[in-house]
Design a protein that fits this description.
The protein has six helices and no strands. The chain is mainly alpha-helical.
């Protein structure tokens, strides 16, 4: 059974491309904050902090690793997520 958060993440990616997107691509983007720019931006911009945390937890990422990936996504792909920005500022 696929977690609803993973479905949400896959939908965010799928809405930004005409190509098929796999769970592995989703997980790799979340781990690294890198990949095809439109997919990276879609994941970090269209998903809530709660969704990203659930997916990260499912694949064994710590909050620190998630924030590092988001930092990479901001620098490399100009991804933006107000919830994550507030979380970073808080911690």
């Amino acid at each position: 059974m696929t977690l609803p958060a993973i479905v949400t993440g896959l939908n965010a990616l799928s809405n930004s491309t005409r190509e098929a997107v796999t769970e592995n691509e989703l997980f790799e983007i979340l781990k690294t904050g890198d990949g095809k720019g439109h997919l990276v931006r879609a994941l970090f911009e269209d998903c809530s902090l709660e969704t990203l945390e659930k997916i990260a937890g499912y694949i064994g990422l710590t909050p620190k690793q998630l924030l590092h990936a988001y930092s990479n996504a901001k620098k490399r792909h100009r991804a933006s997520n107000e919830e994550l920005d507030r979380y970073v500022d808080f911690n």
